[in-house]
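Duplicate of earlier report; MBL fold metallo-hydrolase input re-posted below.
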Amino acid sequence: MSIKNSFTKSVFLFSLLSTSLAAVSSVAEAPSTVGAHYVPQSSSKVLAPGEKVTNLFNLNMTTPYILQRITENTYWYQSGFYGTIFYIGDKGVLLFDPLEQRAEPILKSIRSITDKPITAIVYSHDHADHISGADDLLKLLKNSQKEQPKIIASKATNKKMELLESNIKKPTKVLNWPNDTFKFEDLEVQLHGFEHAAHTDDHSAWLLVNERVLHAPDLLNADQPPFWNFAGSERFTYLEQNLKTADALKWDFFNGGHGNIGSHDDFAFHLKFIADLKKEVAKAIGEVPFGYGVDVAKINAHTIMLPTWYGEIAKRATDALRPKYGSYYGFETAVPANAEMVAEYLYSYR
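Output:
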């Protein structure tokens, strides 16, 4: 299958999912990992720190999009389990991460609040599912506003896009890496790049200083245990450091690109969960002999041994964590994969 046909297929599957979501009936939501106080979705009422949107899974499954006002000027958007934020200034709108296949609903959500032009777009990191909606959005804006928005990204993201010959619209304003600041009208926005990053080598956190809002997609999914492969991270190695770095910044609301609106309690939960996971993985490594589960008389290549070993370690760690964490969102799907990443980390670094 060609690359073009692969993308065509993925777009078709996304469309099929979007069409079928409306047919899903309401189901019981998973319990909160942080004892959250939930409030009904509102595009007009601001949140108090620590509050989260109620019934979020069902809203994602049954509505075109969710729009929540976080502060006086910052709004949180989510559809199909992908989220981002936008800030409304005196003259224009600052949008973070134009999500893949979501240009129209994002623009519709913004237009439901304001008719001010979108004057700037920020790329948080070079993953297409978070930024490839830029081209579609620019086409939609072409006839509705006089000037196209500037596109802002870090030097690391810009360099990566060039190196990988990205076909996504390139940045027009590049910030120094790993730390820099820009002004959007009266708003100060700080770039905090992770010099040693777990998710991608250009992964970063963006702090809306005046709003006390932090935007760092794929760092963690709030109100959930860590997602599969720690939100699709390229490595586990530096994740705990990245979480602690972001948690130390001065913010009240967090957008992780997936999951609910986050708080510092979500970071504490993730760090505790990871500590427990590392403990159980280490225990299983000590219990499971290398080659466990492999009939050596029936193989002609040793390559089956390592993944089989990791698989058994992950199973035992998942079983051990289930009594404490098993009722939480996505536990059965996410934890085995995460345990394998931790096993690789603990095996490699001693």
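The chain is about 40% helix and 20% strand.

Merging into the original ticket.
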